[in-house]
Write a structure and sequence with these properties.
By secondary structure, the protein is of the alpha+beta class. Helix content is 48%, strand content 16%. It is built from 7 helices and 5 strands. Strands 1, 2, 3, 4 and 5 form a 5-stranded mixed sheet that branches. Strand 1 and strand 2 form a beta hairpin. Helix 4 runs antiparallel to helix 5. It is flat.
Length: 216
């Protein structure tokens, strides 16, 4: 009855997003955690748009027009599609609601799942997702980037570094992955704006020669 109860909680369409609780369980059936938020309803403004809890999309009922009217789609072939989508969706929502009902069961740390894998793609996908977010907010909000994007970036770097440390890789491989992760974060935060504005010819020149980037 997840859809029925969340639809009713939306006041039959009044709220743009309804977020509900969930139970996370291990593959052997043991319970990892239960998330049951305090019930609240909000009319969103520019100051409180970051207050809609967690960024996963599977514990939410979301108004379809938020996607269609704002050109928001889940990006193709990127691991962290929930992050890239929910941060934009909650920015365009005007009425959101959280209910304490635990309506979803989430299998935690499933073997072979993309979110729990460690690879070069899991590192580069973070850069792609955050570039997508920053470009979207820059175009929409007159260059303003919400601070919670950088907070999420710090959290995600901790998350993936933990996966690297707990992997079956050897010490040297772990060190190399952590170095690449740190390089990606530093280079991204320092250069994403400059790179976004470069002409393709300047990008090609920098790639071919290794010279420092210059403004377009």
């Amino acid at each position: 009855d997840m859809l029925e109860r969340s639809w009713a909680a939306s006041n039959f369409g009044y709220f743009d997003i309804v977020s509900f609780g969930f139970l996370a369980f291990y593959e052997d059936g043991g319970v990892h955690s239960i998330f049951s938020p305090e019930e609240n309803a909000q009319e969103l403004n520019i100051e409180n748009r970051s207050n809609l809890g967690k960024v996963m999309f599977w514990n939410k009922l979301i108004r379809r027009s938020l996607f269609l009217d704002n050109g928001i789609r889940f990006p193709d072939r990127l691991i962290y599609d929930d992050l890239s989508s929910m941060m934009r969706l909650r920015n365009v929502a005007t009425r959101v609601k959280e209910i304490s009902d635990v309506l979803y069961c989430y299998r935690y740390e499933r073997k072979g799942s993309l979110i729990n894998s460690v690879s070069g793609k899991s590192i580069t996908d973070y850069a792609d997702v955050y570039k997508l977010l920053m470009d979207w907010f820059k175009d929409r909000n007159e260059g303003h980037i919400p601070e919670d994007i950088f907070t999420h970036l710090d959290y995600d770097m901790q998350f993936i570094s933990g996966k690297i440390l707990n992997s079956t890789m050897g010490a040297d491989e772990i060190r190399e992955h952590l170095k690449q992760l740190l390089l990606m974060k530093i280079a991204f935060l320092e250069n994403w704006q400059q790179i976004s504005d470069l002409h393709p010819d300047d990008l090609l020149e920098a790639l071919r020669t290794g010279r420092r980037l210059r403004a377009a």
